[in-house]
Amino acid sequence: MNSGMSLKQAPARIIGWALPYWTRGTAGRETPAELFRVLYLGWLVAFVFKVLGSSWDVSWHFRWIRDDLAPPHLLNTVGTVIAVGLTIVHWYTGYGVDRTASRLIQWGTGIFLIAVPLDLINHRIYGLDITAWSPSHALLFIGTAFMIAGVIRGWFVGAPAGRLRTTVLTVLFGFFLENAIFPSQHQEYGVLGLAAWIRGEPEAEPALLDFAAETLKRPVDLVAIQNFSLPVPDAVYSVYAGVVGMIILVMARIMVGRTGTATMIALGYIAYRMLIWPLLVVGGFPGSAIPFFLILAAIAVDLAFLVPLPTYIRPLLGTALITAGVYGGLYLQDLLLEAPPYAPGSWPLAAGLLLATWLLTELVTRRYHLRAEDAVAELH
């Protein structure tokens, strides 16, 4: 009885606790420690829902035709609703964020909310999206990236020093990495899906294969299934991972400032993928190749920071190590397990882009005081 009464009283107690904080303010106002923790716990919960929903979603779409009200979409929507609510709280009260963090969160949430109806309209007009790399999907990823970047900024400048600060910052970068390389899962699912079709054991339902082939104006043949499973050039997978994925790990190492940061993030991400894989397969959904090569590449990131070098020389060594880690890791994974097509000859392009973005990252993190040594609890 007491437990029941406690649950019934919980909403009133939560509202009673929160109402005094619901006052208009500007970003950067002093934030009580308890409120700061609650706000960022809310963000962690929102991102967990979004990651779970998106992980299920990509596997879902390699089995069944798209459905707006599919369970993965609903799960992702829960995270989105929480994120929108937190965005409004930050905007209206000014608690928990500085001006830069607030703007990043608002822009990210706005882009995401604009992308949702655009994606629905795209599907209504053109039917099944043949790739995760479509413009409407890109807006979803970009909006989420801005959102997470704002949360990282807010936590970075506002959280007090200590183990919790380091842990949460590392976890947030894990969410950032997952969102950024999410489109690559199309190739990771596609390479196994194509192999299953060639074996005569297609994982997708016939209606999905028919729909995909019809979209390409072809019969259900090898060409149609290849275009559905692996719709982008082979170089996209390796170059995207070698530049976008790796620069996020470099940024994480700079901001967290702890030895092994990049490796921990990569290990956490791979552990999650290894956990979700059997759950999906047991549930009757297709499995995917898991990007184990990211671990070797992340170790290369951390190794680059162990060598005492001038700031703008480190990216030269780091780029060489990381490029070797990405392409060497892909070669080993393809040899020992399964990897999507990755175009080994694309390494000079990946190396050049990574070096340029790393040099830019050094400039940005120094100019805007985003390095681990710059961290101060400005909001407390």
Helices and strands in order, then pairings?
Blueprint: H1 2-18, H2 33-60, H3 71-93, H4 99-126, H5 135-158, H6 163-181, H7 185-198, H8 206-215, H9 222-229, H10 234-256, H11 261-282, H12 293-306, H13 314-336, H14 347-367
Estimate percent helicity: over 70%
Mean pLDDT: 89
* Largest sheet composition: none
Q: How many individual helices?
A: 14
How would you describe the oligomerization state of the chains in this entry? Answer: single chain
Would you report the number of β strands?
A: 0
Secondary-structure class? mainly alpha
Order of helices and strands: HHHHHHHHHHHHHH
What general outline do the C-alpha atoms trace? globular
Query: For the CA atoms, what is the radius of gyration?
Result: 22 Å
For the terminal residues, how far apart are their CA atoms? 40 Å
Strand proportion, as a percent range, falls in under 5%
Notable characteristics:
380 residues, single chain, disordered C terminus, 0% strand, disordered N terminus, 14 helices, 72% helix, mainly alpha
Structure description:
The protein is mostly helical. Helix 3 packs antiparallel against helix 4, helix 5 (135-158) runs antiparallel to helix 6 and helix 10 (234-256) packs across helix 11. Helix content is 72%, strand content 0%. It contains 14 helices and no strands. It has helices at 2-18, 33-60, 71-93, 99-126, 135-158, 163-181, 185-198, 206-215, 222-229, 234-256, 261-282, 293-306, 314-336, 347-367. It is globular, with a radius of gyration of 22 Å. Mean pLDDT is 89; it is low at 1-5 and 376-380.
